[in-house]
């Protein structure tokens, strides 16, 4: 099929989604919640079917050489399907942002103005090897009155198809058009390219995946894009940090799930505590199988540890500081000051999440004020940066840009606003 034909078909699907969305936008909160509960029940009832499709995707991806971090994201077994269904129910329980009055006031001439939240329209999502995103995006879009156009990638093609079949069935059973949530996966990569060019048909495009995918969409899309970020995430151990707090936080942030964007990739340590703290941190990380890419000062301290595994210690290169590993690998750097730590983070971070371990209130205040990332944690794991953990039920993605939305994007971030004026008829000179 020629690209022009694919483009026309994608635009036609988007137009069908827009027509269906205009009906959904007028639905009451109770109606939308009933729809979400029906989808959650359908996912539970068909968890085995979706898991079987996922097992095929997992086997083929493993045979194709996919790394463990990506395989973990791809996994959508019965347990994860049921967890996703619970996430849909959580979204149903959240306040509906549509119709919320952001502000309102009266002008001296008697004109009354209100700024009200409304749906964005047709939201396109391009992602890879993340079948849970299919459920998250569908639930968030439907609750916020939007339609969803999805490109979930080749690796999860069977899983996504099975999931969308279940969601589509629930939509139709509740009296809604199945075009509200649909895929362009049958067009392959050309489907993604067509969505990028479908300005006037797709209202907003959100890429979610690795740096290459995100930058390709940002560079080539004619449709407005919200940039979700790769996660070159840092933890800074301050001179006033508590090692008893720091070690479990670092281990959790690095090793709980290595293939996610909120996993810590760099450990920055103040020189005043490096000699005492680094051996403790390095032992804990190495015991967990983490390979450390250390700068010269960190390398010397760790290399002097008795009994350490030399195969898990390598010299860091300049490229390390800009790398999102998504693996059991962590960059380690010693700095002379809080100021140097902040400067290094702001130069090399992707703007996702950073954390400071400190008991010094002044240091904490300076770090949280000056670090230019969407989320800054204090004495807490970077893994907390998540829509579900933040209480959103799910997330569209984690925005690392500064326009419209920043950080985890939930229901409110999936709306725009409309001004409504109750007037005095005409403007007088």
Give a description of the structure.
This protein is α/β, with parallel strands linked by helices. It has 2 domains: 3-228 and 405-422, 3-Layer(aba) Sandwich (Aldehyde Dehydrogenase, Chain A, domain 1), CATH 3.40.605; 234-389, Aldehyde Dehydrogenase, Chain A, domain 2. Helix content is 44%, strand content 19%. The chain contains 14 helices and 16 strands. The protein has helices at residues 3-24, 29-45, 47-63, 68-74, 78-93, 131-143, 157-173, 189-197, 211-220, 243-255, 271-287, 296-303, 338-348, 361-370; strands at 101-106, 112-119, 122-127, 147-151, 181-183, 204-208, 233-237, 264-270, 291-294, 313-315, 329-335, 353-357, 375-378, 398-399, 407-408, 415-422. A 7-stranded parallel sheet has the order 10-9-11-8-7-12-13, with helices on both faces. Helix 12 links the parallel strand 9 and strand 10. Helix 2 (29-45) packs antiparallel against helix 5 (78-93) and helix 5 runs parallel beside helix 6. The chain is globular. Residues 12-287, 330-420 form the Aldehyde dehydrogenase domain. It catalyses: L-glutamate 5-semialdehyde + phosphate + NADP(+) = L-glutamyl 5-phosphate + NADPH + H(+). Catalyzes the NADPH-dependent reduction of L-glutamate 5-phosphate into L-glutamate 5-semialdehyde and phosphate. The product spontaneously undergoes cyclization to form 1-pyrroline-5-carboxylate. Its main location: cytoplasm. Belongs to the gamma-glutamyl phosphate reductase family.
